[in-house]
């Protein structure tokens, strides 16, 4: 055991000086337990962790492990192939209401090919989503900034790309705060650039327009009818809802990698809301 009293001559040494002087000389095979403990080296002895006066026998922190427990949900096709895998955590929001915080989600076709892969890592604000072609080549990749984990309110963010089934890039878009930013491009099958535009100069103006329209319905009744494909006001909401479902199906953000699909989807949804308000007013005179 080393001399704790003196180091370098006759001057009395403090514990810190002893540790500093001996730290580079420690040999884990030859140094005794007290030296390792003083040098703040964690050691194991009979499955107990000793760190100064701490003993794992007194550790009751396992009681809160349920807070971080991951739950796995799996569903299968009738042929036994995987259809849906999901990993999440059970959490409680600020109002004490329980919710499921998604961490990973995968969707498979009937042949077992993964078609959608979503990752939302714990402690991270970004959600990553990928779509795949039936030949397992990447179809699209996108990034979202998650504003609220409970409602999963998101904004488009970062680089978005779509690909042909051959693997060649089809579109490259950049987003910030939910709107296009920087250079955006579209390519032909052979890789030739068909369209390119720089949105940098328009960025601030587009942000203002986006925030102004967000959550608001800015259509007249006739505008809404035109968006949903009606030449005149339909007889009832039954026709509106039917046309809404027909129009939304090909542009739903979860069904297509088209970077413009979300804006079209929102526009169609707002049009239905306008007609819903119109028919409610008609019903109440």
UniProtKB/TrEMBL annotation:
<dbReference type="InterPro" id="IPR001623">
    <property type="entry name" value="DnaJ_domain"/>
</dbReference>
<dbReference type="InterPro" id="IPR036869">
    <property type="entry name" value="J_dom_sf"/>
</dbReference>
<feature type="domain" description="J">
    <location>
        <begin position="223"/>
        <end position="285"/>
    </location>
</feature>
<protein>
    <recommendedName>
        <fullName>J domain-containing protein</fullName>
    </recommendedName>
</protein>
<dbReference type="Pfam" id="PF00226">
    <property type="entry name" value="DnaJ"/>
</dbReference>
